[in-house]
Amino acid sequence: MTRPPAITKFLALGAVFAIFLAVAVPGRKASGREDKRPAAEKPDQDLQSSDPRESPDPQKSFWERFTDLFRTPAPQQPIAYTHKKHLAVGMECANCHQFAETGPQAGIPHADFCMVCHQAIATESPEIQKMTALWKQGKDIPWVRVYGFEKEAHVRFDHAPHIRAKVECQTCHGDMTQETVARVLVKHTMGSCIECHKQEEASIDCMTCHF
Ligand code: HEC
Ligand code: HEC
Ligand code: HEC
Ligand code: HEC
Ligand code: HEC
């Protein structure tokens, strides 16, 4: 047996160290330094703008931050929306994505809908203030799309038949209860569509999914 050359060991150690830095250090930054200001002057943790990539959630465990390294990052959205908080207060997918049961697209609510609550809730939050400013100008929020297919693939997807057949949101979009803005948690390919269609005895005719 030949011993691995020193350079291999060096690289392996380097990789382990890099992963350690990426996972552990942001966590320490978030919780290590103690804030000595009186409670009233401290910024409210919950009300801080949070781009999940730049300011890791201090409540996330070491393991969650580690697995995050291997997941698709969320696109930069105009408002740091959070699925986690809304689902925690008992809202359901269908409250906001109300067309999934009846149409091809699930839909994302207009700012008018959000402002029913946010004229009163979390009005101190800079993110809510950004949204309020857009809304007062009569504008909607320009959300960046997360899921979708290249135009050239000519894919036709339709939510309604899946919801009627009791396929759950989670099967195709993962566990959104722990997410802030959406990111791709489940990758959809022709292979994954067809695999389930075979299993469920749904059509695998090319024209079912293509136009
Ligand atoms: C039924 C009421 C309700 C509706 C409708 C609603 N929200 Fe919220 N929202 C809440 C509650 C409750 C919180 C948690 C507030 C807290 O933690 O102090 C929240 C928190 C937030 C936050 C985090 C605020 C912060 O900085 O901590 C954002 C951003 C937000 N909502 C955006 C939206 C958007 C965008 C919509 C529309 C798609 C929306 N909300 C619709 C009730 C609502
Ligand atoms: C069989 C898999 C599947 C299921 C089940 C499913 N989705 Fe989707 N969803 C997709 C795919 C694929 C796209 C991208 C479609 C496209 O761009 O044409 C998508 C897109 C979306 C979008 C983005 C835009 C839009 O309006 O369609 C939202 C929001 C969404 N899904 C929410 C939901 C919710 C909520 C549920 C449960 C009620 C659900 N989805 C169930 C596969 C699924
Ligand atoms: C209070 C409203 C609200 C609720 C409740 C809600 N969402 Fe969303 N969802 C949004 C908003 C706003 C966006 C656009 C911002 C983003 O991409 O995160 C979004 C985006 C998404 C997207 C990505 C759409 C795209 O661009 O492809 C998916 C998938 C999604 N939600 C699934 C779900 C599922 C599944 C549930 C239930 C477990 C759920 N959402 C509950 C407001 C909501
Ligand atoms: C987890 C299982 C599952 C996945 C994943 C899935 N489907 Fe389906 N699909 C179904 C079921 C079940 C039906 C309903 C069949 C029926 O009504 O007979 C269906 C129906 C459809 C229909 C309507 C067919 C018709 O005859 O009207 C289309 C279009 C479709 N799927 C496209 C897709 C595409 C595109 C993807 C991948 C992005 C996909 N599906 C992923 C299970 C799935
Ligand atoms: C159950 C749904 C489904 C069926 C049935 C299906 N496809 Fe697809 N197909 C897709 C999806 C979704 C994509 C896009 C995948 C992606 O973006 O990674 C795709 C992509 C493709 C592409 C690649 C397009 C590109 O631009 O790269 C070709 C070619 C294709 N399909 C041909 C076919 C043919 C031929 C059949 C019939 C034998 C078929 N598909 C049946 C869902 C389906």
Blueprint of the fold:
Blueprint: H1 6-31, H2 62-68, H3 83-88, H4 93-96, H5 111-118, H6 126-136, H7 159-164, H8 169-173, H9 190-199, H10 206-209
This protein binds heme C (HEC) (5 copies).
In brief:
41% of the residues lie in helices and 0% in strands. The chain is mostly helical and 211 residues long.
Low-confidence parts, pLDDT < 50 over ≥5 residues?
25-55
What coarse outline follows from CA principal-axis ratios? globular
Termini Cα gap? 58 Å
Tell me the helix content. 40-55%
- Percent of residues in beta strands? under 5%
Q: Which sequence of SSEs, written as H and E, runs from N to C? A: HHHHHHHHHH
> What would you call the structural class?
mainly alpha
> Major sheet: size, sense and barrel closure?
none
Task: Explain what this protein looks like in three dimensions.
- There is one protein chain.
- The N and C termini lie far apart (58 Å).
- This protein is mostly helical.
- The chain contains ten helices and no strands.
- Bound molecules: heme C (5 copies).
- One heme C binds next to helix 7, helix 8, helix 9 and helix 10.
- The site of one heme C has 20 residues, from helix 3, helix 4 and helix 8.
